[in-house]
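Section 3.1: Structural characterization of target chains.
Under the original work plan, the team committed to producing a structural model for every single-chain target entering the pipeline before any wet-lab resources were allocated. The record below documents one such target. The sequence was received from the expression subgroup and is listed exactly as submitted; it comprises 100 residues.
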Amino acid sequence: MKNVLLVIVQIVALVLMIYFTGVHLAQYIVHNHMQEMPLWLYDLIRLALDHTGNSDIREPDDLSTIALLSVLSICWIAATLVVISFYFIVRKIIRMRCDV
């Protein structure tokens, strides 16, 4: 029971850390580096919408919302990769020091 609780606590901590890291990274990128939507992001969104059959979405507000959600998703993916990598590195270091 104690091990199950420890695993649940670790998973919840990882999810919260990934969530908040991704949100703060997205806020930093949007507020400091994206005054306007980059042309490559606009073209990518248009291409994705046209190929998925949603070519009727042409409102600038919709496109900017999709752009912000795309940036947030990319930041969450990057945060996931970094946090999980650090988690495994730290876990390996702790196990190596405990074995010695």
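Helices lie at 2-33, 39-51, 60-99.
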